């Protein structure tokens, strides 16, 4: 009987060992998935910041262009006013 129970123990150990490997593989797969999600979120945040920065630059550029045109108009009318 002892040989049978030791054989059962060996089989049980092998089964639990393989299931541990499967669990470890599943954990690694889940961790990798979570890392990829985190990286994607970081990339999205970077893109969002870049878009905000580009929008700010465009607004500043438009403001400067508007001020330049206003100065040209003021200069144009000041030239005619002095006549």
Automatic annotation (TrEMBL):
PANTHER family: PROTON PUMP-INTERACTOR 1 (PTHR32219:SF2), RNA-BINDING PROTEIN YLMH-RELATED (PTHR32219). Signal peptide: none annotated. Transmembrane segments: none annotated. InterPro entries: PPI1-4. Belongs to the plant Proton pump-interactor protein family. It is found in: Cell membrane; Endoplasmic reticulum membrane. Residues 23-61 form a coiled coil. This is Uncharacterized protein. It comes from Gossypium arboreum. It is a single-pass membrane protein. Its main location: membrane.
